[in-house]
Amino acid sequence: xxxxxxxxxxxxxxxxxxxxxxxxxxxxxxxxxxxxxxxxxxxxxxxxxxxxxxxxxxxxxxxxxxxxxxxxxxxxxxxxxxxxxxxxxxxxxxxxxxxxxxxxxxxxxxxxxxxxxxxxxxxxxxxxxxxxxxxxxxxxxxxxxxxxxxxxxxxxxxxxxxxxxxxxxxxxxxxxxxxxxxxxxxxxxxxxxxxxxxxxxxxxxxxxxxxxxxxxxxxxxxxxxxxxxxxxxxxxxxxxxxxxxxxxxxxxxxxxxxxxxxxxxxxxxxxxxxxxxxxxxxxxxxxxxxxxxxxxxxxxxxxxxxxxxxxxxxxxxxxxxxxxxxxxxxxxxxxxxxxxxxxxxxxxxxxxxxxxxxxxxxxxxxxxxxxxxxxxxxxxxxxxxxxxxxxxxxxxxxxxxx
Length: 402
What we know:
- Keywords: Signal.
- GO terms for molecular function: lipid binding.
- This protein has 402 residues and is α+β, with helices and mostly antiparallel strands.
- Helix content is 28%, strand content 40%.
């Protein structure tokens, strides 16, 4: 039982908790708000969300819907816009996302703060008139059970919060220019929420779908266990507080891809701990871990020619046997062999946060390479402390103090 034994677990994510003895034979991946925020932020960048903000059609929108749709003010609006040559967002950024429980405990509230600087050009002044715009897109993450397929997580009800909308002039100019800027900002206040809803919300929904698809792909990555592999499949998602739970079923496959063991897919009896300060947690049942350890430590047989490989051991062995039975010691020739066999699969035990692996090892001593029967046989239970730790994208099982 050499150490360390290594197998790849899950990419990128990740700190793993020790297996608890009370778990049913399945697994659950718990994603805290930190992981959700980071993954969704990455997807928003991949979908060029800030570029979408910079391309918001501010001027055409307020021209098409002047003065919030009140016709009587149309001429006034047209007079104002006559002095605006162009109007656009010059810089945009998405600030730190927030993920919180919603009023419904089975839903998540996602807040996406938007920070923009817009400007317009006017013949009344040579420089660009700039103003600062702040708003916040909000959306709900919930479980969708309406589709004919399996339950999945979706992001919906995307809109902006009226309380979060702020538009203010960055620099003061002449009385006339300031008055024009104020009228432009008054026109933008009702237009900006609709622009965000129509232009950015579809990007936010697509980003969440991309994040969810990546997570599902991630949990399906096969875990190599020597010649075998362990695979997980999503049974159902869930939301609890500010976390996403992915209940998983597991199966063990041999080198030919044939399933050799299915594990109980019942997720209802899982004892799911709170995350505390950890970004995520991966809880695995003892049955799955035992099968994984057994696959990494299959029954093996080693043959050692003592006189050639370990001459000092051979000498001491012959001397010790001679004290018990001189005739038996005399039968030990220069080709004496020790055969080491690991029998059965190793046992995996947990007790109050500690893990241990035990396996029966059999030593057979043959007087020579020609001997058909061993001179004597010795059975040893080898017990080791099992330690799990992460290294990069790998979960490592280290066996100490064999």
